[in-house]
Amino acid sequence: MFVTAERVKRGKPEPDAYLLGAQLLGLAPQECVVVEDAPAGVLSGLAAGCHVIAVNAPADTPRLNEVDLVLHSLEQITVTKQPNGDVIIQ
């Protein structure tokens, strides 16, 4: 799902884009995972109430200690879709 800046009134670090994305998917924000590399994106995902994975984010990113995972590279993530439709991120 891609939600571009043109679709929301307030950009990152406000949560609008992630809230709209969750709505368009028919999901609660708590059911969504945000993958971000920018401080504003991390803050946006957290403000929306999503799970957040920070990838190669600067060490001084505000609230970095609140994200679900901090990774140096996307190569550290394995995403598996289960037969029942669930998605496992490891």
Automatic annotation (TrEMBL):
Looking up PANTHER family in the UniProt record yields: FRUCTOSE-1-PHOSPHATE PHOSPHATASE, GLYCEROL-1-PHOSPHATE PHOSPHOHYDROLASE 1-RELATED
**Protein name, entry field:** Putative phosphatase/phosphohexomutase
Q: What is its EC number?
A: 3.1.3.-
Write the record's keywords in alphabetical order, separated by commas.
Answer: Hydrolase, Magnesium, Metal-binding
One Pfam family per UniProt: Hydrolase
Q: Into which EC class is this enzyme placed?
A: hydrolase
Gene Ontology MF terms in the entry: metal ion binding; sn-glycerol 3-phosphatase activity; sugar-phosphatase activity
